[in-house]
Fold each of these.
Amino acid sequence: MPTRKEYDEELKVINDLVEAMGQQVLLAIDRTNVALKNLDVVSANAIMKNDAMIDAMETEIEERCIKIVVKQQPIASDWRKLASYMRMIGDLERIADNCSDIAIYIKKLAKLKKAAAPSRLEEAFSDMRKMVADTVTAFHNTDISLAEEVVKADDVIDDLFEKNAEDIKKGIQENIDDLDAYLIYLGIDKYVERMADHVTAVASWVSFIAKGELNIMFTDRYTKESETK
């Protein structure tokens, strides 16, 4: 039977893998942002290819969590960690998937006549990227205050999404020939908003690891969103 030392070492390995996955997702976001600015098809293809590596990281973490539950008897605080890890990597993987989705849109945009991007799309992307970076830092330091700031920041992204949608509507009205490009930008705008939602969930699990309770702001938002679907 594995010793307590081996058990603690495996928990640390899992913790480090979750953090490494967060760093890879952050890198995918950075690459996606650059590819979008330049409508770089080569970079878009690389983003899509790299998604497989992040999927593999999720699978490895899942397997390690399951094995430690089967072979050990985790105490309450460790159960919180393991349960949180499983939820966190799911949301991180979805953020990476959204990067791939945006990469597909980048390839489509590159084939169209250039149209002006929504004025606040870059701001939304930058703010969402900061949310991810802050969440990775909060996870590394078990920083509850920083994690809660990430949850609050989601409202900013929601507001920017609406403003970008209005820009797109106005652009279509002024130049119907750019309809296809504007619809793609609307899709990208929505993916950025979804990515912010996913990282809000990750930040809330960081709080759960430390306090044993989910951030009330997150649970209220989740309930309202579920009721509207």
Amino acid sequence: MRIPLLLLTALWLLTGPAVAADISASTGQMVYVPVYSHIWHGNLDARGKPQMLLLSSMLSIRNTDPEDGMTVRSVRYYDTAGKMLREYLPHPARLGPMASTDLFVEHKDDSGGSGANFVVEWSADRPISPPIIETVNAYFFGPHSLAFTSPGRVIAR
């Protein structure tokens, strides 16, 4: 009887009620967001290399606070080796309550590689609900399509 009870407990823990994400208000963060300029797929060829599929990526920054705005201070794009390729914002950009903005990495731009990333820095005058920052990585050509999101992760407050 003990094993079924342990299994039921484990199942409940895995499938039980969802726990809300921490929405602690903040006045700013530095957020790391994965980007996939390309992904490897398929079988290895005669040289031991898989096939490469180029993807486009859209960085989405969404102010989730219904009352206050925020400022996007910086959006830096890094390659797989950690080399900064470019700053996407020449000047800080203001987002009003519930406003969004996006930036785009073209399909033909494979400079970032499979380990590319954005580092987004934002701030607010008062504590606000943290924004949702993620990329949508996509490939749409002919009958073939692929799309997935990559959520950002706070790396500094």
